[in-house]
C-alpha cells in the first residue's frame, strides 16, 4: 500500500543522481584516449596529512611527463573500510584498467579481490600498507629497519647508557609491529638502555602529545625518545612540562624537523626518517614499467629519506612556511635521490613546472 | 503486520539504488553489469548481511549492539589464526568463532538484562573488550584459508553465496514465527506488558544478544572466506554500517517494529551506493558526504511515511 509513495520518491532520487553527476563524470574519465594506459590509485582513507600529500604527489606526477602522455590516472578513496575498497577494486576490474596502485585498508582484507585482478592480468602494485597476496607487487620501505635505525641512533647518542621512552603507532597494523620489533631488538641488545615507558601515540601528534603529557609526571629522567609517529607532539609535551628535551628519534613531520634545524627553538638533537609520501609515485612508475615490459615483475624496496640535526637543510628537507603536520619527506634529496618533487606537487597536487619526472626503481 | 510491509522501506531503497546502479554502470561502461559484478557484490555484502540480521534482532527489542565490531574482529582473528592447515581444521575454527560470538553476545545480554545497564553503555564497553581479545588472538593481519573453504562459502566464480543468503533469510523467517520470535517483538513493543503476561524478558534479551553474537561469528566466517585471510581490526566498520542497514531497513529504534529482511535489503543497498558513487565519477573527497546524504534521505523518507500514517 505504501510502496508506490516510497517508490516514486526514491525513483525520482535515483534518476536524479546519475543525471546531476553525468557532466562531472565525463571530464573525470577522459573517454578512450588511444594507447594510454589506465592506472588507478585505490587509497584506503584520506584522513591525515600524509595521505593527502601521497595523493597530491600522485596527481602531480600524472600531470607531468612522461606519465602525462602515457597514462590515464584516476584516484579513489575508501574511507578506511575494507568492504568499500574491495568494491572499488572490483569496479576497477569491471572497468578494465591496466594497473591498480593500492594503499590498503587492511593488509589481508583485499587478498580475495586482488587475486581476481591478477587472474585478469591486471598489474597490481601496493605500497605503504601493502597487500599480502603474492600475485601483486609491492613498493615499500623496510619498517623493521625504521625501528632499528632510529633506536641505534639513540643508543649511539647516549653511548649505550640511559632511560628511553617508546611512543608506538596504531596497534594491529603491520608497520607498527615491525617498527616496534626493530626498536626492541636494538634496545634489548644494549643492557645499559632501560625502556622506562611504552605507550601508543597512534601516529598522531595531538594524541602523542596528550599521552606523553599524561605519562611524564610518573617518569624518571628521560634521556631518549623513540617515536613511531607524532614526534612534534612528543617534543611539545616535554617543553610544556618544563623537562629537558632528550635525544629524539622520530618520523618526518615538518614540525619535528623545525626543531632539528632550530627553526623553532629549542634546537633538538635527533634523527628523522619517514615513510615517504612519494611511494605512490614509485608505485605508479613500477606499474607503468611492468605493463610496458620495461621492468621485471618484481617488488621494490626503497631506502628511507633520512636527516639528522646535522644534515637537515632549510628549504630542502625542512620547510619553515609549511605547517608542522606536513611530512617533509615528500621529496627525496641528494645525488642518489629516488625521485625529486617540488613543494607545490605536495601541497596542491600541481605539476612541477617544466620538469620531466625520473624515478629510480633501484 | 506482514513481512513484506515491515520491510517495505528497505526494499524500496534497495530497488532505487539498484536502478541507479544499473543506470550509472551502463552509461559509464556501455554494457550491463556482468556476472562478475553481481557475484563480487554478493560476496562482499554477505558479512554485512549477517551482522545486520543480528543487529535487527537487538534493535527489535529496543536495544543496540555496538560490540558487533569486536565480535566480528574476534571471530575473524580466531578463524584466521587457526586456519594454517586443511579445510577440516578451518571448519572447526569457524565453529569456534561462531561459538565465541554466541558466548560474547550472551555476556552482553546478561549485563543488559540482569545488570539493567543501558545497551549502548554495555556494548560500548564490551566492544573494547572483544576488540582487545581479537588483537590478542591475532596481533597482526594474516593467516590464510584453503581454497576449498572459499569455494564452498563464497566462490568467486559460482554463486555459492546465494545458498547462504537463502539460509540466512529462511532462518529469519522461521525464527520470526517461533515463540521466541514473537516474544522478541513483544519485549520491544512494551516490555512491562510482556513481563506482565509472563514473557521471560531477561532470557529473551540474553537470547537476542547471543544471536547477534552468532550472526557476528557467521559474518566473520564469510569475511575470512571472501578476503581469504584475517585482520583483527576487521570488525570496526560493521558497527556503523550494520546500524545504517537497520535504519535503511525501516526498523524502529524504539523496538517492536520492522523486519530483519528490511535490514538485509538495507545492507545490499549500502554496498550498492558505493558502486553508484564509483561509476557516477563522484570526487573521492565527496564520497562519504554522499553516502551520508543517502542515509539521511532514506531515514527521512521512512519517518515521513510513519508520521503521515500516524
From TrEMBL, chain A:
It holds the Pfam family Peripla_BP_4. Belongs to the bacterial solute-binding protein 2 family. Residues 39-294 form the Periplasmic binding protein domain. One of its GO terms (cellular component) is cell envelope. This is Ribose ABC transporter substrate-binding protein. It comes from the Bacteria. Keywords: Signal.
Automatic annotation (TrEMBL), chain B:
InterPro entries: ABC_transp_permease. It is found in: Cell membrane. The chain crosses the membrane at residues 7-26, 38-59, 66-87, 93-113, 120-138, 158-175, 202-225, 237-254, 261-282, 288-307. One of its GO terms (cellular component) is plasma membrane. Signal peptide: none annotated. The lineage of its organism: Bacteria, Bacillati, Actinomycetota, Actinomycetes, Micromonosporales. Keywords: Cell membrane, Membrane, Transmembrane, Transmembrane helix. GO terms for molecular function: transmembrane transporter activity. PANTHER family: ABC TRANSPORTER PERMEASE PROTEIN YPHD-RELATED-RELATED, RIBOSE IMPORT PERMEASE PROTEIN RBSC. The keyword Cell membrane applies. This is Sugar ABC transporter permease. CDD domains: TM_PBP1_transp_AraH_like. It is a multi-pass membrane protein. It holds the Pfam family BPD_transp_2. The keyword Membrane applies. It comes from the Bacteria.
Amino acid at each position: 500500500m505504501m510502496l508506490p509513495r516510497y517508490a516514486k520518491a526514491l525513483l525520482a532520487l535515483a534518476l536524479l543522481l546519475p543525471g546531476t553527476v553525468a557532466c562531472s563524470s565525463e571530464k573525470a574519465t577522459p573517454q578512450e584516449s588511444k594507447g594510454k594506459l589506465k592506472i588507478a590509485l585505490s587509497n584506503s582513507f584520506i584522513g591525515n596529512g600524509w595521505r593527502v600529500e601521497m595523493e597530491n604527489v600522485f596527481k602531480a606526477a600524472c600531470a607531468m611527463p612522461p606519465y602525462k602522455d602515457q597514462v590515464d590516472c584516476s584516484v579513489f578513496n575508501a574511507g578506511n573500510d575494507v568492504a568499500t575498497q574491495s568494491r572499488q577494486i572490483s569496479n576497477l576490474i569491471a572497468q578494465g584498467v591496466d594497473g591498480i596502485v593500492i594503499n590498503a585498508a587492511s593488509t589481508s582484507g583485499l587478498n580475495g579481490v586482488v587475486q581476481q585482478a591478477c587472474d585478469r592480468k591486471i598489474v597490481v602494485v601496493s605500497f605503504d600498507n601493502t597487500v599480502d597476496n603474492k600475485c601483486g607487487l609491492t613498493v615499500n620501505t623496510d619498517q623493521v629497519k625504521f625501528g632499528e635505525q632510529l633506536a641505534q641512533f639513540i643508543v649511539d647518542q647516549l653511548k649505550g647508557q640511559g632511560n628511553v621512552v617508546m611512543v608506538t603507532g596504531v596497534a594491529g597494523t603491520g608497520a607498527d609491529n615491525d617498527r616496534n620489533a626493530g626498536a626492541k631488538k636494538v634496545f634489548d641488545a644494549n643492557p645499559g638502555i632501560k625502556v622506562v615507558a611504552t605507550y601508543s601515540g597512534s601516529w598522531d601528534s595531538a594524541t602523542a602529545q596528550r599521552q606523553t603529557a599524561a605519562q611524564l609526571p610518573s617518569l624518571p629522567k628521560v634521556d631518549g625518545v623513540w617515536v613511531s609517529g607524532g614526534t612534534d607532539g612528543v617534543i611539545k609535551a616535554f617543553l610544556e612540562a618544563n623537562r629537558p628535551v632528550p635525544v629524539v628519534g622520530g618520523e618526518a613531520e615538518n614540525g619535528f624537523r623545525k626543531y632539528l634545524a632550530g627553526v623553532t627553538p629549542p634546537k633538538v638533537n635527533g634523527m628523522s626518517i619517514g615513510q615517504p609520501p612519494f611511494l605512490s609515485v614509485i608505485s605508479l612508475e613500477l606499474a607503468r614499467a611492468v605493463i610496458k615490459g620495461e621492468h621485471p615483475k618484481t617488488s621494490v624496496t626503497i631506502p628511507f629519506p633520512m636527516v639528522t640535526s646535522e644534515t637537515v637543510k632549510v628549504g630542502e628537507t625542512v620547510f619553515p612556511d609549511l605547517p608542522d603536520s606536513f611530512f617533509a619527506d615528500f621529496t627525496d634529496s641528494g645525488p642518489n635521490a629516488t625521485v625529486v618533487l617540488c613543494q607545490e606537487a605536495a601541497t596542491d597536487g600541481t605539476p612541477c613546472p617544466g620538469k620531466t619526472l625520473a624515478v629510480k626503481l633501484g | 503486520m506482514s513481512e513484506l510491509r515491515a520491510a517495505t522501506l528497505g526494499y524500496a531503497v534497495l530497488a532505487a539504488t539498484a536502478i541507479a546502479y544499473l543506470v550509472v554502470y551502463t552509461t559509464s561502461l556501455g554494457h550491463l553489469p556482468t556476472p562478475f559484478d553481481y557475484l563480487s557484490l554478493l560476496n562482499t555484502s554477505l558479512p554485512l548481511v549477517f551482522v545486520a540480521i543480528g543487529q535487527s534482532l537487538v534493535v527489535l527489542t529496543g536495544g543496540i549492539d555496538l560490540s558487533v565490531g569486536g565480535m566480528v574482529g574476534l571471530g575473524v582473528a580466531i578463524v584466521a589464526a587457526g586456519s594454517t592447515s586443511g579445510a577440516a581444521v578451518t571448519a572447526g575454527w569457524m565453529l569456534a568463532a561462531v561459538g565465541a560470538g554466541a558466548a560474547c553476545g550472551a555476556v552482553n545480554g546478561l549485563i543488559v538484562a540482569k545488570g539493567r545497564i543501558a545497551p549502548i553503555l554495555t556494548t560500548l564497553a564490551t566492544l573494547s573488550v572483544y576488540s582487545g581479545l581479537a588483537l590478542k588472538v591475532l596481533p597482526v593481519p594474516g593467516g590464510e584459508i584453503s581454497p576449498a573453504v572459499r569455494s564452498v562459502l563464497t566462490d568467486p566464480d559460482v554463486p555459492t553465496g546465494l545458498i547462504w543468503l537463502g539460509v540466512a533469510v529462511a532462518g529469519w523467517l522461521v525464527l520470526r514465527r517461533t515463540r521466541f520470535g514473537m516474544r522478541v517483538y513483544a519485549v520491544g513493543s512494551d516490555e512491562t506488558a510482556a513481563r506482565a503476561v509472563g514473557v521471560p524478558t531477561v532470557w529473551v534479551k540474553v537470547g537476542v544478544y547471543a544471536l547477534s553474537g552468532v550472526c557476528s561469528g557467521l559474518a566473520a566466517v564469510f569475511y575470512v572466506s571472501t578476503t581469504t585471510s584475517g585482520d583483527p581490526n576487521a570488525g570496526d566498520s560493521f558497527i556503523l554500517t550494520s546500524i545504517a542497514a537497520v535504519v535503511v531497513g525501516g526498523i524502529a529504534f524504539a523496538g517492536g517494529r520492522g523486519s530483519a529482511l528490511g535490514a538485509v535489503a538495507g545492507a545490499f543497498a549500502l554496498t550498492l551506493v558505493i558502486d553508484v558513487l564509483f561509476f557516477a565519477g563522484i570526487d573521492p573527497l565527496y564520497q562519504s558526504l554522499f553516502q551520508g546524504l543517502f542515509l539521511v534521505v532514506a531515514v527521512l523518507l521512512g519517518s515521513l511515511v510513519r508520521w503521515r500514517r500516524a
